[in-house]
Amino acid sequence: MDTVFSSTIELAAGIAAREISAVEALNAHLAQIDRHNGAVNAVVTLDRKGAVERARQADATLARGDTPGPLHGVPFTLKDAHETVGMRTTAGFPPFAGYVPRLDSPIVARLKAAGAVLVGKTNVAAMLADWQSDNPLFGRTSNPWDLSRTAGGSSGGAAAAVATGMTPFEIGTDMQDSIRLPAAFCGVYGLKPTEHRVSLAGAFPDSGGTARSVRLMSCLGPLARDIEDLALIHRIIAGPDGADTDLAPVPFDPTPKLELKSLRIACANAFSGFPVAAEISAAVESLAAELASVGATVEEAKLPKLDLHDDLAEGGKLIGMMLEVAQPEPPDQPTPVSRWFAALARRDRSILTWERFFESCDALLCPVAMTTAFPHCKPGSPLKVDGNDESYWMLPAHGAVFNYSGHPAIAIPCGQDTSGLPIGLQLVGRKWSEARLLGIAAAIATLSGGFRRPPGY
To answer: Does residue 329 lie within any of the structural domains?
Structure first.
């Protein structure tokens, strides 16, 4: 067993069968962190002593003959935003530098109850507010495929840790492409579920017991090197939890085994007016042609008649209104309640329009972001796309559209560009269709190539 690049499911099965101990699995991952983290800077908090004790307890549980959970003994890291009892949670923000939560967030509690062994926390953008993972507390995370480039954000440390074998899976947060973009940049899979599928409680450090303001557009979801791992982790963390009252009690169906020839795929190599690198557009077209060649029904997407630029702007306004509530002092001119309800009504129209679009296809294949991993830079700097300067703020546009609409989307690795950097594409489906969307991604992986280990790891 290649321990650090085994899938989560393989590791759990090996530990349950006593082919490898939880301590041995942990030690292999700690050695990988020791070997590579200095260059990549993905893991920023490491509870070595506590993790060893938890792994020993996992082995003792098996020795007693107790029935293991689905993640029994599997080591993992978490994005430094989730509240973790006894382990600092900073969101890369100096005022939270010493914050140690008294409770685990619901998703952390579920992962631990499934038997997983928490090892440490991974780097983020400061306050989760950028598409590069860089902050005043821990510095920047580099892309394992090219250390001069970003791993993305805000879940950049998570994606880099998964890609380099420091952890078998991670849980990211995604308000504007923050799971899918770093997954694409680092060449791993990332799932943004349907809005209100996974609890947001404890998904951001809260040392003062303030009202939870982020209730729309933001989602939690897994990153992994394997589609089946995404499905397993999602099943564990999804659903009502007694803390987030917005969660819908929608059952999660088993991931279906699908034949490519049964699929109806709509393809868009770019959205109108959204910049995207030619090699990414070509990857969409190439995969679409391969799908058609094996019998899938593939059509050029007739995208909804929506002003997607305006959707992005409206999404930004909604985020601003939510964050306004979280400020220590109210603004001099708070947003009128009528404007909030008008914004929600506009968003409803967009959501319903996309739902009608998905009545005629199983999934939409499109870009995740406008470029592959770009060189470290000051946030807001123009980004080069095919030699042209493009707005930094349009980087996640293709992904952020589906934060505004709330639809589930998966970033899938699809080869490399001419610079050797991973290309990530996006599969989007109708609301609550995660199981089928994961089945589609698994079927397509036979053509798209799946995860590839970065050179040197």
So the answer is: yes
